Structure formats: C-alpha cells, structure tokens
Amino acid sequence: MKILFYSPHPTLYFDAPTGYGSHMRGMVTGFKEEGHIVEILVLGNKPQSTDSFTQTNSFKSILKKVLPKILWRTLKEIQQIRFDKHAAQELLLAIQKFNPDIVYERSAWMSNGSVQVLEQFNLKHVVEINAPFEEEVKEFEQASSFISFIGKNKLKNLLQSANLVAPITSSLQKHIVKYSGVNLEKCLVVPNAIAKSEIEITESRVQEIRKTLDLTDKIVVGFVGSIFPYHGVDRLIHAVSKLNKTDVVLLIVGDGYLIPELKEQSRTLGLHSRVHFTGSVPKEDVYNHIAAMDVVTLPNTEWYCSPVKLFEYGALEKVVLAVNEAGVSDVMTDTDGMLFENNEGDFQEALNFTISNLNQLKEKANIFQQKILSNHTWSANARQILNQLNALK
User: Is the confidence at residue 277, as pLDDT, over 90?
Assistant: First the structure.
C-alpha cells in the first residue's frame, strides 16, 4: 500500500533529535519494513540560526514578556489555525501527486484541516494522538487561551472523522473517549517502540564510561532522558540518599533546566561524589551508557506519556524499576521488572528490594527484553495499526 505520513504541526520537524522525532521516523520506518511505500509530509521546519531569526526571536521574547499570558497564548493559537489552512493545502497537493491508500496523521492542537480535504477522496485516515493537547499547554506554558474551545471542537471533529484513532496510552484513550466522544471500537492503543537497528553497543566504550566515572565495583542505578519535573529525578536522588549501601552510585544521562537544582540536591544530601550527570549525550552513545548501568529507573512520568526510555531499557535487558502509571503498565508487568505505586514510600521500598535482589531480578529483565523485541518494535506497531484498520468495517 501507499501511505502518506502527515504532520501539520508548525514546529515539529522530522529530523528532530527528540522523542517526537524518533517517533515520527520510527513509524515511517515501521511501515517501510512492512513492505509499504511511504511519502512524508511533515510541515514543521527545523529552527534556523540566522541573524534575522535571532532578531525575530528576540522580538517575540519581548512581546511575550509584555503581553498577558492568556493573550499571548491566544495569538499563538490564531497563528496555529492559519498554519493549519496552509497545511491542508499542502496535504491536498500531496494526495493529488502521490495518490495514497492511507493518510497517517500525527495530530496537532488547533489542526483539523485534513478532514475537509479527505472528504474529497476515498482514503482511509488514521489519526495518532500523543497528548491531551489543551492540558499539556496549560501545564507547560502555565497559560489558558480565549479560543481553547475552538481547539476542542477541532480535535473532536478530527478524531470522530478518522477511520482509526491511535492514542499512545490506555489513559489517553480513556481521556479522548470521554472528552471527544470518540467511539472506543475505533481506538487502538499503540505505545512507543524501538528500532532494533539502532541498538548497537561498543563494549570498549562501555568500559571507558565505567572507568572514567569510577563506576567499577559499584552498583550503578541509572536514568536516561530529557529531565523535566515530572520525571522524578529528585525522587530518585532522595531515595538513594536513604540507602544503607554506599557502593550505590547514580548515573543521570540527559539534560534539562533542572540540572543545577538536582546537583545542589545531591550536594545537600551528601551524594555529590556518587551522582554523575553526563548532560546531553549523542543518541548513538546513549545505549553504551545504559549498558554501563545495573538498574535502570523511571521514577515518575506524566499520566498520558509512553516513555521511550522504557523500551530502550528493556531492549538492553536491564533490571527495570518503574512507576505504575498507564504508559508503563500498558507495556510492563510485575513479571518483567519492578513496578511501584506513585509515591515516595513505595519507591523507596522498591529500590531497596531491587538493590538487594539484583541477581534474581535478571530473569525478569530477560523476559522483558524478549517482549520488547517481539512486540514493541516500530514494525510491530505499523503491522498492528494496518491489521486493525483492515478489520474495521
């Protein structure tokens, strides 16, 4: 079949070195690996670093400081609506040129231009949804909008018109069924995944990491990813400080604005020499860092997220300690690793048990690895989506 991969978001770009970039590339690769022809229409542009761009960006920063948050957010959403009209025109041209069988759309806030375009064609339409957009905006930008009702109506229209809706977690599925009125029968939960071809370990590099950071003869507890408050890295540092064992060290791989605060927390708790922050690491080297860990953690996550790190952890056959939220429990059970309820007490208890029973837990790590590599590759996701789409009337 011929599949048109479509993203109308004005700033998300295909080559982005982020979770959303990996997801877009992964789905395209998955469809191709299943033998389908894929055309890519991703309309977000990579940020430029020219002087004019810097000046424009500076002007926007000043304007953002001057305007009330609700007005700034409203103006931004008006721009998104205008961009959606442009995206719809590009979609129309792409369909006329490529003549696909399926349009696979990564949904975006304030975007439903595809609905009117697709009314002109006899095509199947799959809509992937990765977040509760309005709630996400409110949390990250701490701002509401005068026209959020338009976004709600557009999302409702988009999801109801699609042949198949693919939320990334079961919790997000419940949310959209409740608030957008989508028929549960045309929903398919499709969590994140991993590309087997990306997994490459260089043993000499792993040993170099352990030697450079003085991790030899230590129990290395690790975390990988962009570091935001909801990731719970502060919870992890605090829990390690309460362990009786002094041979446990932390390896935090990733960057974020919280790093200075987390470093200060480590110093305050007397862990400065036992907590290693790598900062941003090239994607190809992340797996080597994970390989240097004994226990990998997911101390917390947003209720709707499907953490990419969970699949990376599993693929490398690591003992996983993860919070029992839907994005985790959709994929992992007590058979595969250590789950804990989302509070400090349960996390502390689970960490204590994990550190004391590492050898016994390696069997769970092996089971989880087999599950990830069999059921949670991008190819498996693509196959599942197309099978479900074909099964619908």
Answer: yes
pLDDT of 51 over the 60 cut: no
* Least confident range of 48-52, 135-139, 187-191: 48-52
CATH fit for domain 2-193+378-391, picks 3.40.630.30, 3.40.50.300, 3.40.50.2000, 3.30.70.100: 3.40.50.2000
Rounded to two decimals, the pTM is 0.91
How much of the chain exceeds pLDDT 90, in percent? 85
Of 3.40.50.2000, 3.40.50.300, 2.60.40.1180, 3.30.300.20, the CATH number of 196-374 is 3.40.50.2000
Three-state DSSP string of the chain: CEEEEEECCCCCCCCCCCHHHHHHHHHHHHHHHCCCEEEEEECCCCCCCCHHHHHHHHHHHHHHHHCCHHHHHHHHHHHHHHHHHHHHHHHHHHHHHHCCCEEEEECCCCCCHHHHHHCCCCCEEEEEECCCHHHHHHHHHCCCCCCHHHHHHHHHHHHHHCCEEEECCHHHHHHHHHHHCCCHHHECCCCCCECHHHCCCCHHHHHHHHHHCCCCCCEEEEEECCCCHHHCHHHHHHHHHCCCCCCEEEEEEECCCCHHHHHHHHHHCCCHHHEEEEECCCHHHHHHHHHCCCEEEECCCCCCCCCHHHHHHHHCCCEEEEECCHHHHCCCCCCCCEEECCCHHHHHHHHHHHHHCHHHHHHHHHHHHHHHHHHCEHHHHHHHHHHHHHHCC
Q: pLDDT tens digits for 6-23?
A: 999 999 999 988 889 989
pLDDT in tens, 312-361: 999 999 999 999 999 999 999 999 999 999 999 999 999 999 999 999 99
**What are the φ/ψ torsions at residue 288 (nearest 5 degrees)?**
-65, -35
* Domain chopping of the chain, boundaries: 2-193+378-391, 196-374
- Residue 56 scores a pLDDT above 60: no
2-193+378-391 and 196-374: same fold? yes
Residue 52 has pLDDT above 50, yes or no: no
Given a cut of 70, whether residue 108 has pLDDT beyond it is: yes
